[in-house]
Amino acid sequence: HQRADGGRRRVEDGDLTDVVSLMRVFDKYIDNEFNEYVVYNLAAMSFVAVSFTQPRLTQAITGDGHLNVLEALLPFHKKGFDIKCFLAGTSEMYGSQVNSLGYQDLATEMIPNSPYAVSKLFAYHMNRVYRESYGMNNKTGILFNTESPRRGEEFVTRKITKWFAQYMYNDFGNGTKLELGNVNASRDWTHAKDTVDAIYKIANNKKPQDYVVASG
Questions:
Q1: What is the Cα–Cα distance from 135 to 208, expressed in whole angstroms?
Q2: N or C: less crowded end of the chain, CB within 10 Å?
Q3: Quick one: DSSP state of residue 62?
Q4: For residue range 145-156, what is the model confidence (pLDDT) as tens digits?
Q5: CB 166 within 8 A of CB 112
Q6: Burial class (CB in 10 A: 0-12, 13-18, 19+), 199
Q7: What are the residue numbers of the active site?
Q8: What distance lies between CA 81 and its chain's CA centroid?
């Protein structure tokens, strides 16, 4: 939350699995002070491998969590507040499906292959249902992989670069090998700065619709 006059930003406690806590935060800030409001839901249990060991928690945060956001925002929408809601979707929702050219777009069938992807697909469809049923200004950005030096070390790019740095400085001693998973996997990568720029433009677009964000 940032005031239009450049005032201080504030951090509030909340829990995506607790719709009441979300209502309290929104009730505190959504009033007649501003002409419009933008809500970004970027939260998820986003590490695919962990979603297989914690599928219920993944759904509670990633899927049901966004439903809680929508339910908490709905009363304000019905009161006439101009609220734009952005959901960070994921290319994982497609699974292995591609079109005739070998690409994925808004028309590509979505057959997710992990609990994380299933949870995101649930959130994606709920975002659409609330948009179509209640007229809410909801958008989903279907984001392909976002990369930067801040990428978590459990992801392949940071895993490789960290290992290489340790190798160059001879930190291993006994020569630990770099172990990777599926080396045949294919991914589209976009720099985080470009992705965030796209997210901002999508969220602030007055037309509620969905977009694919990728580098090609």
A1: 9
A2: C
A3: I
A4: 999 988 888 888
A5: no
A6: buried
A7: 90, 92, 116
A8: 24
